Amino acid sequence: MSDYQQIIKSLFERHQSVQTTGFSADSYKPGLDRIRELDRRAGSPSSRLRCIHVAGTNGKGSVCSLLAASLAGSGYRVGLFTSPHLLDFRERIKIVEEDGFEMIPKESVMEFLEKYDSPELSFFEITTGMAFWFFDREQVDIAVIEVGLGGLLDSTNIIVPELCVVTSIGLDHCALLGDTRALIAGQKAGIFKSGVPAVVGQMDAETAPVFEAAAAEAHCPLFFAPDFDVHGAEQLKDLLARMDLQGECQEENLRTVLCALDLLGEEPNVDALCRAAAMTGLRGRWEAVRRSPLTIADIGHNPAALKGNFARLKEMMASGAYDKLLIVYGIMADKDLQGILPLMPREAEYFFAAPDTPRALPAPAILSAAKELLPNAQACDSVADAVSKASALATPQSLIYIGGSTFVVADYLKLQEI
Predict the structure, then answer these.
(1) pTM exceeds 0.85
(2) Would you tell me which CATH number, out of the four given (3.30.420.40, 2.60.120.1440, 3.40.1190.10, 3.10.180.10), belongs to the domain 3-280?
(3) Closest CA to 393 of 374, 380, 406, 407
């Protein structure tokens, strides 16, 4: 095992990660005192960064990548901080330029941990501090910072950005953020800062008053992307068709990004927007990982995200272009399976699997919950087993979907590296 592998292994052992253990008292530590102290010990790098701060339930990763790509395509050296990672811890911290991205070097990860790791910190606090430190040291022109959870008490919320962005609001992490969209919106609006413009990607009767009240209290200009005058409908449709980020949600994400760029005084770089996933290394967002049979991998995991994904699968099947729909599906035990099951296409054949994480719901438990609604299903031993069984039944004209969880997609992508 290399020195880097050993130090990453030790990091996960010393600090429980939400990605692997869920939102326990050890992995999720809301509040800003610890990250402020870490930032101070590292020389206060957050105070020197020019930032864009992005919160929301779904779409954060796509919006961050689209923003980073457009800015990089226009000549900026862009820091990009996102989570979670799929294959490599370093995916969380990248520098994006016109010719592509580079992850934080292994040597920099080791240097930061050796200097600043402390037992009272959460995994996400350490990662956030590392990103601020690295972006400052590399003198990026601007950093796009994705909120980890919520906004108000998130470790990233010590920055004073040039622009705040909130993507969509859905019911997820309700035990921590509230059980209504209005309550969750209030947490996301916690990133609003005095005098800093804020863009909200959705506008609806339940959440708009929350954002308006929060903006008034914070004394910040508020803009709703649906009201914003962006490109004409045909130009927007053409751009969406050309983007390497696909999926029903990308129209809303793109409109949000165009609004944000306008408020920053930046022209959208159309070429960069079209290749944002490639430029930033973003994976698992309606990603066509194989062409024959067409195989789609997507990390959408809550009802709001999966509703759109499953609806699109139904439309694709209704087109007559595919002979069968095969779905490899897994879910974390703390997710809303009962809210997701009614959304799942009845015509599909299902291969339920628990990805390699203690948080996963066992495949037999999914099968038991789904048997009345989805009789054409089976429990598999692993994601690899599920993919193998789905592939054995597929023809070149079949459609395969792999998702339900970030971890399902990560396990699948690991198979492709073997």
Answers:
(1) yes
(2) 3.40.1190.10
(3) 380
